[in-house]
Backbone:
């Protein structure tokens, strides 16, 4: 809400202030500033309104499509909500399982990526040796490993955690490796000149200056962990939202599939925005600018 | 051995001599690093094979078949593999083409309008965080068990990097060049074809590289869910029937295929950049 400005020409005493004084200039500048703020707010409101319109249009399109097709093929928003209510006990348990798998897998993967990336980033030779393997690791779709890992670890929680960790490790590893190497040369020389040990240089210089890059990797890793968990749940099909989707798919209970997908999307978004928030928090704490990636 | 300081050599000759020596030493050093790297790579490969061998010795073959059993399964199952691999390749290629063409087309359309971009930006951010492969069961319900549904899954996840990169690329035009073209009276279309397209190309090529890898993921996940044809389906089937050595052999084929896709995409990107004399996008 804009502060109400008092026209200085009509001062408290009622005597008009002469035009051209500092007080009048200030008044007009403040008025100009307020007008700009109002314009900006109006623009933001228009953007929000337009965005909501797009959302409404998408929902309308969904409803229109759904009313033309059978509910098994394309349930509408209302039928999806009904599916959510009907399948809630199942979906709620599954959502907890999925969230736990994502959290554990992501944490393990990010930790592994951070440690390995720091180690490999210390030595050009190690990086040269591991380079082809890292490329192969990057190229191979990790979700393709799901059947193999399910066979090894069973149908429970752990195969999902392992696969999520495998997927989450890579972006953190790569970004840590690049980050700890791309350090300001003058600072590195200063540290060396002051006789800092490699551990000190790592902890107080390399790791800190790598943080923007590492946090960007963390943001990617969260999404990859979510994807891996869901795909492994598709394959193993006993616990989690992916399993609920496969159950609905097998029984042609499409509203249940849609409902589980909606909850899964919410879980994925919550994790993603938690990662974005963590990134902002860490970077503000260390007073760093975010990575451009 | 110290160089003989022959009296008949001029200063310039001596300088040249020392320069040549330093260059030789550097080449030698580089060669040694390269050699150590090669040896290290072979050692890592042997270590990985050793771990596999050891795991196969500890676990029963139904859980972890060894390298020999896997190679055996590759030869025994070559008819099955031969039958399923082209299906997966077709899905990857079609999904990549459909997804990237749609992504580039829609990206160009959105980048034309400031409003469209402002309105759609939050949705694009959200789309990054949504696990898009989770749509696979729905796409298969809608499109059936055939090729189309897997192509749709592959196209869906190949679509987004191109959409984002096309919009970002068309936007990040050099303001000075833009002002120059505008002051020379260039039309919108001329600015688009002569300036914007070229600033966008590096990001679009990078998007194509990512899309190729993602199309592979999409095709496999689609096959996991639909589970009748293709390498992904073969993986799930051999998991279900405990034909673990076939599972490992299929993993081998899939790994080779994925590496092939990645290397092709990367060399395609490099060649395209070289063709238009562009620098890769900054990471």
Residues:
């Amino acid at each position: 809400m804009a502060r109400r400005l008092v026209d200085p020409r009509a001062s408290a005493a009622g005597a008009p202030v002469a035009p051209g004084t500092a007080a009048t200039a200030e008044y007009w500048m403040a008025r100009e500033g307020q007008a700009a703020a109002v314009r900006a707010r109006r623009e933001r409101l228009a953007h929000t309104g337009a965005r909501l319109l797009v959302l409404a249009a998408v929902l309308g399109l969904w409803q229109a499509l759904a009313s033309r097709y059978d509910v098994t093929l394309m349930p509408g928003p209302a039928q999806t909500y009904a599916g959510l209510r009907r399948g809630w006990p199942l979906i709620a348990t599954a959502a907890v399982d999925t969230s736990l798998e994502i959290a554990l897998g992501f944490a393990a993967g990010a930790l592994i990526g951070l440690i390995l990336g720091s180690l490999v980033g210390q030595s050009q030779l190690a990086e040269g040796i591991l380079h082809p393997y890292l490329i192969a690791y990057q190229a191979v779709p990790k979700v393709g490993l799901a059947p193999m890992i399910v066979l090894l670890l069973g149908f429970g929680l752990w195969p999902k955690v392992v696969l999520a960790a495998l997927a989450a490790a890579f972006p953190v590893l790569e970004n840590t490796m690049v980050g700890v190497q791309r350090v300001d040369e003058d600072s590195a020389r200063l540290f060396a000149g002051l006789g800092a040990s490699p551990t000190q240089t790592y902890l107080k210089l390399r790791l800190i200056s790598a943080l923007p890059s590492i946090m960007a990797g963390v943001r990617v890793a969260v999404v990859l962990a979510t994807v891996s968990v869901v795909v492994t749940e598709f394959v193993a099909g006993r616990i989690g939202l992916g399993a609920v989707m496969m159950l609905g798919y097998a029984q042609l209970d499409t509203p249940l599939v849609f409902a589980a997908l909606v909850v899964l999307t919410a879980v994925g978004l919550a994790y993603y925005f938690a990662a974005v928030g963590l990134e902002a928090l860490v970077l503000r704490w260390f007073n760093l600018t975010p990575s451009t990636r | 051995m110290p160089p003989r300081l022959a009296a008949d050599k001029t200063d310039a000759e001596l300088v040249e001599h020392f320069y040549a020596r330093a260059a030789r030493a550097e080449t030698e050093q580089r060669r040694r690093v390269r050699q150590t790297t090669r040896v290290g790579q072979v050692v890592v490969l042997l270590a990985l094979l050793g771990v596999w061998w050891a795991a196969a010795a500890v676990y029963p073959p139904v859980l972890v078949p060894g390298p020999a059993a896997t190679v055996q399964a590759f030869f025994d199952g070559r008819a099955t593999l031969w039958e399923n691999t082209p299906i997966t390749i077709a899905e990857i290629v079609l999904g990549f083409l459909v997804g990237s063409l749609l992504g580039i087309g829609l990206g160009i359309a959105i980048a034309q309008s400031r409003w469209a971009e402002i309105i759609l930006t939050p949705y694009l951010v959200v789309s990054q965080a949504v696990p898009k492969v989770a749509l696979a069961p729905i796409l298969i319900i809608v499109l059936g068990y055939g090729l189309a549904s897997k192509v749709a899954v592959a196209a869906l996840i190949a679509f987004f990097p191109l959409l984002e990169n096309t919009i970002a690329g068309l936007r990040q035009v050099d303001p000075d060049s833009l002002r120059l073209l505008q002051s020379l009276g260039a039309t919108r279309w001329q600015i688009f074809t002569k300036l914007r397209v070229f600033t966008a190309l590096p990001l679009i090529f990078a998007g194509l590289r990512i899309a190729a890898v993602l199309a592979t993921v999409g095709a496999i996940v689609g096959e996991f869910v639909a589970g009748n044809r293709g390498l992904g389906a073969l993986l799930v089937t051999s998991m279900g029937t405990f034909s673990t050595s076939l599972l490992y052999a299929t993993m081998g084929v899939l790994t080779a295929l994925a590496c092939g896709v990645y290397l092709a995409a990367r060399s395609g990107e490099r060649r395209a950049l070289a063709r238009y004399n562009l620098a890769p996008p900054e990471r």
Q: What stands out?
A: The mean pLDDT of chain A is 86. Chain A is about 80% helix and 0% strand.
